[in-house]
Amino acid sequence: MFLNAPEMTEVIYGADNIISKTLQGLPELKKSLDGCYDSAGPSMVVTTEPIWKALNEVVKRGISMRYITDIGVENISYCKMMTENGHQLRHLPGIKTNFAIADRYEYMANIVLEKEKPLWQVLVSNVQTFVEGQQSVFDTLWNRALPAEQRIREIEEGVTPEFTERLTDPSEIQKITFDLVRSAKEEIKIIFSTVNAFKRQEHSGLMWLLQKTDPSVTVRILIPIAFELDEKMKRNFVNRKIEIRNFVNSSLKAIFTTLMVDAKLCFELEIKDEKDNSYDQVGIATYSNSNSALWTHTSIFETLWMQSRPNLSTNTRY
What we know:
- The chain is α+β, with helices and mostly antiparallel strands and 318 residues long.
- The protein is built from 12 helices and 16 strands.
- It has 2 domains: 9-157, Endonuclease, Chain A; 164-310, Endonuclease, Chain A.
- The protein is elongated, with a radius of gyration of 27 Å.
């Protein structure tokens, strides 16, 4: 890497040529090397011996070495080797891009990484407007990423990290709803804040899916007090021992559907109740395993449950 070199972009082919280019640039580093790799990246770095050796020499010179990758069970040993040798590493789940930036000046990106296999094609550029844009991307991802030490500890201790996702795609929202129901081992709790929300999920197949869950899974559903089940659904719910109660929906200030599974995951969907079909009614969904979100939704559910009564058309526990 030469700071006074003219701006240019080129593609380099072949593992030997790529390694040669990398080894030529590493001794020229003055301040930093920032890299962003998918989950195969750490194995590539560590098992490509000349590059691994050269990178460790760069660390010894006090150069800042920052890497973002997806740390999991399959690559944790390589990630630990990197952190133990002084490389700064952070975790970002699902990361797929693969690039590195030297001294905020030169950018190198490869097309594909395969586990424990060398690179075979990379793009190299020192066009400053482009490099500055990519550096901004890296800095944003770095600030969002989790320190490697914390992620490694989570994996080794079997701790599930907290997450909160916001979703807007109706098909993805419906898929996650069904997947959550299928995953239940102990209990399912659902609040439908309006009659239409219940009917639309009935049409989507959710009620049928609830009836097919393992009988050992407790299912409790809250629906508005004005709603009566039809006789067929009533029989199906009685056979499956699904308990359903009516609540006064004026108790809720928002229109939503909430699903909680095994006291571990919660899913809340904002509803546009004036719409005619399930896809049009979908607003923003929030999917989370955070303790605070679970506590809030569970508290709302149990309060409404205690204030509610069995569905008026049955007089029995479902």
